[in-house]
Write a sequence for this structure.
């Protein structure tokens, strides 16, 4: 018997049948859970009459179980509506744990077969991704473009008149070519936009693969969110997001921020066993830690939480606007020339081949008039077609796809395309230390007991009380999870690097048995570590005692300020001012070696405080330890590379000022002259207390900010941005989440750790290697340069084609290039040639240039210089051949037109070489990487001229004519070399244009 769906979804409405059913199911659940616990066998639940067994056996798949009260719908409704009444009717959290064949501390115990069966019964923790927009839909959108519609109508009218005058057979190479050209332009546009829309989805980071900590068979494991199943026990800590709906099992001070669910900015919810055990997927853990039972997974949960990042590429937006404006320029030019041609025609100024006027009033028949107008329309269509740079958008798609694929191979995952562009303008990098500059592994290398340094082994001659207190402080004042191993010293610890190092040291040097300590001590209250207070604390009660023990550990100087006594080898002593100063010197000496200093303290109180707050005064210092964290390989080289590229570094850390200064000097963030500069190294409180004017004056000299909180880091980013800096932030976890989100470019380190940090970032460095920052910067600059090369190449082609066709049409009434030839130039040749520019890899020279200001136009004065000189040379040569080619080469009209077409294409082959190096004079450097593409272009052009005569309307050329074309086209490289000696200041085009279209857009 199953609960009715409506009753389940509306449990607050009175229903005698629902109440009876719930009571019946509750009694069955209680009886079966007790029986199962006695026999240590799993209990069954049902979804569509299916049961689960912990021994990997599927039992009775056809029988309708009496436990269908905890099916998928019921469990989803339970948490979604926070229905405490239904939870009580189902027997509470413990009964649901038993019914799901799980365990409060050990989790599920089944193997792969059990996991697969749970997925089959309850579903998978993934969601249906939004359908990718098809290429057909992009084509339908492109064909509706006003320019395309006008061109298509004109082409169809022309085709109709061609059929009437020449018949269908003879019009195939004429009017139909215009229709084909327009349709192909729409196809290229749709393919380009389709590639741009899908390539980011293909290479972007899948949030369903974020790792979470799951307890299975009593051990902690990292698994992807998509691998979480119903019945799993999840470990939650500060910075995590709840991966699925579930129930709270146990933990301390767990608080969630449910802003992503409710939209309330201050929607903080405390979760506990008694009042509110419900956890919603997507809520963010902001305090405490705890364990939860997963009760429901699937589309309705995760699709609203882990959304896909979808956006238009910034360069795509620029190029779309640029393309739109170029279309308008082409259409305007075509309209003006068409109007003038009509005036010339109807005034009798246009002559035919015999020199007679084509139009004579009252003598020229209507058919000839319409045919002449259609011919003029064809010419105008050709002018517009040549100015449509759809190949530019396709080249952009190829460039982005190629770059992102290689960045993925370099362990860099893009979450926001805008970061690929913005990184090119970055001026400052704010970074933390642990897991970023240093390896994510720490080790205790120095230990002090009282004022004596432990040299060989921890002195066992100290009082047993002090030794026991230190063991308890390490074992219980932690949120790490320890997996049991066969070896007594081999521990698998899940936690932050500091916790892992301390537990490993405690096991190896102190001989701590964590399970044994937990047997005789009860944790009353636990305050987890927070970066703003720099310590964690625990209240414990030993068995058969009423007194409460307080244990603290944290930043050494902060813990020391709370202490009035200390332990040495002789026992507990009162701490005088002089002795406190000695301890401060000990802490400073460790910090100057780059060690992170941790102190342990203890206090015994009579009873539990009413507010369960950890004591922060009158404590006894138990000992000091120094943790070493080695720099990552290649950090110094990465910092130096970024500095050569014009970036400055600011280290922002929670460590004390001496440790931060030592590490900054070691990784060369601090130069020798800055090492002694007091204003280059400050503390967070000092930065906060600056007056606004003082802060603006000193911020450019700051290199290290120690003892900082998350708000300090975010405030530093805000101040830098106000000063005009483009800020990149590297970090991980909850501490840097706000700074990552507020930065211009957020770079999170690693795939493990807090989900909030990764979701706040623009890029994720998967290998956790700081040297990847250099790779990101290099690729960002390479992408920017490639886009500039593509634009320079395309604008040169467009400017030349527009001027040649417009002037040629104005002078002779016909365009020098046919529709098929223009189509070959605009689609085929430009696309293939652009491959040579879109697939360039980062160069070493890119890391020697300063950052590009965001306000700088994408088309620089250097590019304008190159575009204008090359276009001018090409236009002069092509128009000379157009008007004097027959006499110069002693050829007929068709051969002359072929020479114009061939010269135009060969110009663009060498135009690729010129565009490869926008600024550098060594244009042939690295040409071997693109020689295959250029060779293919030349071979295709030869085939077009020599073999496809009918299609291209060309005539075969001899060796002399080919040699002339190649020589004249190759001379453009000589001109490009000479022009690069001319200062770009002589071409202040951007300043001249002012607020014109290009400067305004780019």
């Amino acid at each position: 018997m199953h609960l009715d769906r409506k009753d389940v979804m509306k449990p607050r409405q009175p229903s005698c049948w629902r109440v009876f059913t719930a009571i019946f199911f509750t009694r069955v659940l209680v009886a079966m859970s007790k029986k199962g616990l006695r026999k240590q066998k799993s209990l069954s639940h049902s979804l569509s009459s299916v049961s689960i067994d912990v021994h990997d056996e599927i039992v009775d798949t056809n029988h309708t179980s009496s436990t269908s009260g905890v099916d998928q719908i019921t469990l989803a409704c339970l948490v979604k509506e926070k229905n405490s009444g239904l939870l009580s009717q189902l027997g509470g959290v413990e009964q649901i744990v038993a019914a799901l064949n799980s365990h409060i501390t050990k989790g599920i115990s089944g193997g792969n077969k059990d996991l697969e069966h749970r997925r089959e019964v309850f579903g998978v923790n993934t969601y249906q991704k939004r359908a990718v927009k098809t290429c057909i839909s992009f084509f339908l959108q492109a064909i509706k473009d006003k320019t395309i519609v006008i061109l298509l109508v004109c082409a169809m009218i022309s085709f109709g008149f061609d059929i009437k005058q020449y018949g269908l057979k003879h019009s195939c190479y004429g009017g139909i070519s215009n229709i084909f050209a327009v349709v192909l332009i729409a196809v290229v546009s749709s393919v380009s936009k389709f590639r741009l829309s899908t390539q980011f989805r293909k290479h972007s980071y899948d949030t369903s693969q974020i790792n979470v900590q799951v307890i299975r068979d009593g051990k902690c494991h990292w698994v992807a969110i998509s691998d979480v199943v119903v019945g799993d026990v999840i470990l939650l800590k500060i910075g995590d997001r709840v991966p699925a709906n579930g129930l709270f099992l146990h933990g301390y001070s767990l608080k969630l921020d449910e802003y992503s669910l409710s939209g309330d900015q201050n929607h903080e919810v405390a979760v506990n066993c008694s009042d509110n055990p419900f956890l919603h997927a997507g809520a963010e853990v902001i305090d405490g830690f705890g364990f939860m039972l997963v009760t429901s997974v699937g589309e309705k949960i995760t699709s609203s939480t882990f959304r896909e990042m979808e956006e238009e590429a910034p360069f795509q937006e620029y190029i779309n606007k640029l393309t739109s404006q170029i279309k308008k320029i082409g259409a305007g030019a075509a309209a003006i020339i068409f109007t003038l041609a009509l005036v010339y025609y109807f005034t009798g100024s246009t002559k035919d081949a015999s020199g007679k006027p084509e139009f004579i009033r009252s003598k020229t028949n209507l058919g000839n008039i319409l045919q002449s107008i259609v011919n003029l329309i064809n010419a105008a269509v050709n002018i517009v077609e040549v100015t449509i740079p759809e190949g530019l958008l396709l080249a952009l798609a190829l460039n982005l796809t190629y770059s992102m694929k290689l960045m993925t191979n370099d362990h860099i995952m893009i979450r926001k395309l805008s970061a690929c562009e913005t990184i090119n303008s970055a001026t400052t990098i704010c970074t933390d230390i642990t897991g970023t500059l240093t390896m994510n592994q720490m080790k205790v290398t120095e230990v002090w007991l009282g004022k004596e340094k432990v040299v060989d082994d921890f002195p066992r001659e100290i009082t047993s009380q002090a030794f026991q207190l230190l063991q308890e402080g390490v074992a219980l004042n932690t949120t790490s999870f320890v997996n049991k191993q066969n070896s007594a010293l081999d521990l698998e610890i899940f936690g932050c690097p500091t916790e892992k190092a301390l537990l490993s040291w405690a096991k190896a040097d102190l001989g701590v048995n964590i399970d044994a300590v937990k047997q005789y001590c009860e944790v009353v209250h636990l305050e987890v570590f927070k970066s703003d207070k720099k310590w964690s604390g625990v209240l414990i009660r030993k068995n058969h005692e009423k007194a409460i023990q307080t244990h603290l550990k944290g930043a050494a100087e902060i813990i020391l300020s709370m202490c009035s006594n200390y332990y040495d080898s002789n026992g507990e002593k009162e701490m005088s001012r002089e002795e406190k100063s000695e301890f401060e010197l000990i802490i400073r000496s460790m910090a100057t070696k780059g060690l992170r200093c941790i102190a342990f303290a203890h206090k015994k109180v009579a009873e539990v405080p009413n507010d369960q707050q950890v004591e922060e005064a009158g404590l006894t210092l138990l000992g000091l330890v120094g943790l070493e964290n080695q720099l990552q390989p290649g950090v110094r080289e990465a910092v130096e590379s970024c500095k050569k590229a014009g970036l400055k570094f600011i280290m922002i850390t929670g460590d004390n000022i001496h440790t931060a200064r030592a590490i900054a000097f070691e990784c060369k963030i601090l130069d020798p002259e800055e090492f002694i500069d007091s204003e280059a190294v400050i503390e967070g409180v000092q930065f906060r207390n600056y007056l606004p004017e003082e802060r603006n004056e000193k911020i450019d000299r700051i290199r290290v900010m120690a003892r900082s909180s998350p708000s300090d880091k975010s405030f530093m980013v805000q101040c830098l941005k106000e000063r005009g800096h483009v800020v990149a932030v590297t970090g991980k976890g909850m501490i840097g989440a706000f700074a990552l989100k507020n930065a211009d470019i957020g770079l999170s380190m690693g795939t493990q750790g807090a989900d909030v940090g990764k979701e706040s970032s623009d890029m994720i460095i998967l290998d956790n290697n700081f040297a990847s920052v250099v790779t990101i910067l290099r690729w960002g600059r390479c992408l920017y340069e490639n886009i500039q090369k593509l634009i320079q190449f395309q604008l040169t082609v467009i400017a030349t084609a527009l001027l040649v066709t417009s002037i040629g049409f104005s002078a002779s009434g016909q365009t020098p290039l046919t529709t098929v030839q223009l189509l070959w130039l605009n689609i085929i040749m430009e696309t293939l040639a652009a491959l040579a520019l879109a697939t360039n890899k980062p160069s070493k020279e890119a890391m020697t240039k300063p950052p590009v200001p965001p306000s700088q136009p994408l088309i620089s004065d250097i590019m304008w210089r190159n575009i204008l000189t090359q276009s001018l040379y090409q236009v002069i040569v092509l128009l000379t051949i157009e008007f004097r080619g027959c006499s110069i080469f002693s050829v007929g009209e068709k051969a002359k037109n072929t020479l114009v077409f061939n010269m135009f294409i060969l110009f663009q082959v060498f135009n690729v070489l010129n565009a490869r190096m926008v600024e550098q004079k060594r244009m042939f450097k690295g040409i071997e990487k693109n020689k295959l593409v250029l060779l293919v272009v030349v071979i295709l052009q030869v085939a077009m001229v020599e073999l496809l005569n009918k299609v291209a309307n060309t005539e075969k050329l001899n060796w002399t004519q080919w040699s002339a074309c190649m020589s004249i086209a190759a001379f453009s490289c000589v001109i490009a070399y000479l022009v690069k000696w001319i200062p770009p200041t002589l071409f202040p085009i951007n300043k001249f244009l002012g607020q014109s279209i290009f400067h305004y857009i780019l």
